[in-house]
Structures are given as structure tokens and as C-alpha cells.
Input
Amino acid sequence: MFIGHRYWYIACRSPELKHKPLSITIASIPIVIFRTVNKIAALEDRCAHRHAPLSAGKICQEHIQCPYHGWQYDTEGTVKKIPALPPDCKLASNLNIKKYHSLEQDGYVWVCLADTPATPQPEKFPYLDAPGWTSFRMKTRFLAPIDICLENFLDCPHATFVHRFWFRTPKAKPVKAIVKTLEDGAVAEYIEEPRESAVVWWLLSQKNTQLQHTDRFIAPSTSRVDYIFSDQRHYIITSSCTPIGDRTTEVHTVITFRVQPIGWFIKLFFAPLSRFIIQQDVKMLNLQQANIKRFSPSNYKFTPADLLLPYILKWRQSNQCNENSDSPPPPTGIEHHVNMLL
Output
């Protein structure tokens, strides 16, 4: 069983869900999402009759209609009409199909697979559409599990090789990292990290500014990276990971930044550059996962420079994310310092 069923996952962008049903997969579960006149809904993507995909059907006011025999279901998964039967025929309850919790927030459609969600709604993307902030979105498919995607987004050492000269240039400069556990995950802060000779920071920051950089894991499947400069510039990269299968993850990234008054101008080159950089990560993780398949399973090796993956794994294997686990998540308030080279 996939972990994290009690949490919310992005199914699609709101504009993608128009007048036709949409087929999606979350944690290997086929789901149909659709929009009626008054609400959105998420149901299992099969008719109870002959298991035809409801996503191939159509919307009839407040119902979704199966393309095979025309059975209609409401947004709760209750069968409301069977065209081959008289209107006054009582329909058995075992004809109903499973409903999943769904809602719209921040321009996305979210789905929760559990009967009772862990929270009433997902955590909001920070400063999205806030005055003075500029945003853009990306959707990226990784052929890797969520754990590995999250580590990649929150891992500094790989950037000096995978994104060499684009995002980070190896300086072998001593850097101190402070790692703290939080009530919903963990955060790492970097002290006096280098940003010389990198295209991204040449474009996005000014010389002689102070930088505060934090990488944060938010259980079970979100990463947030903050770059805050002393001249009030602030860049936030938030990635929400949706499990498609065991080793496939859809990542919805929102990049939000405050660079006044030229945010619109920064976006012109920052958006394509970000898409280029994330495709470098896609290529690397695809290579890594393909190579893992070539060898018998074995545990990863860890060093002190692997700051957040140990906490990501412990959280996602804890009873907060995995109903089959008895292990609690790491306690809040643990802090340790790591000396590393970047």
C-alpha cells in the first residue's frame, strides 16, 4: 500500500478540468475527476455494471454518465439512473462506486484517498497571487519515487555537478548547515554558502547582498526552498509531489518571487531557465533509477552531507504517513550542525 493516503495530492490544474471527465492516477488508483454545474468530484474510474471507464463518458448536469450503458452517478458515487430500467425501479446500494475527497485551491484540483483527510485542506502555496509577488508554475513527470524527488529538490551537493555553472559552481568553500526537525518535517539552513560564477545568481541577485537560504521538507510530499536577500528580494520554490505509481511522480512546482518593480521582467528569463534546470534533474533521476533496476536491492549509504533524506524517510515511514507503521515521526526540536564543502 502507498503511504500518505490521508494527505492531499494535486490531481491537475483547475483549467485542465473543463466540461469533460478527466482520467488520473494517484498511487496506482485510477480516478475520474469531473466538474458539474455546482461542484467538482472524484470517483473510482469504473462503472459498477461492466467496469467501463467513466472518464470516457460525459457530464449530464450534476451526474457523470457511463459511455457503455448510460448509467449515471452523482458526485457521491451513487447510481442515480439506469436507462434500461423503469424510472420507479428501486436501485440497490451495492451499485454505488467509491468517492474520494476533492477540492479546488490555488488553481489546482486536489484529491485525498482516505476516508478522513489528515487536514481539512492542503497547505497553501506561499504568496501565490499576493500583491508585490510574481509567480509561475511547472508540471514535471519523474520516473522516480517521491522520496528521491524530495531529496533531489532539497539537496545542495548535487547542484555543483548536475547544474554545474547554471545553478551552482564548485568552490569547495566551507559551509555550515543547521538542520532542525519541525512538527511537520525538517529544515536545513545554510550559512555563508557561495553563489559566485553561477548563471542563476548572476541574473537574480545583486552583488554584495546577504543571502539566507533554507531547504524545508513538509510531510509527506512537499519541498520548499527559500532564498532571501538583504535587498528584500525573495525567491520561493515549492514542489508538491503526487505519486502516480511506485516509481513515477508528478511534481507540481510553483515558483514565487518578490523583485519589485521588475518581477514581470525577471519572469521572462527565470521561467525558461527553471524549466531547463529541472529537466537536468529529470535526466539524472531517470539515469539513477534505471541503474537501480540493474542491481539487486540494497540500502543507500549516508554521510553527514545528506542533510534531509534521513528525515524524509523516517517521516514517510512513520505512523503519521503509513497506517501500517507503529513508528512515530522524528521528535520536534532536534538540531544538529554539519560542516560541508560547496
Remarks:
- The longest helix spans residues 263-294.
- The radius of gyration is 23 Å.
- The chain has two domains: 8-112, 134-341.
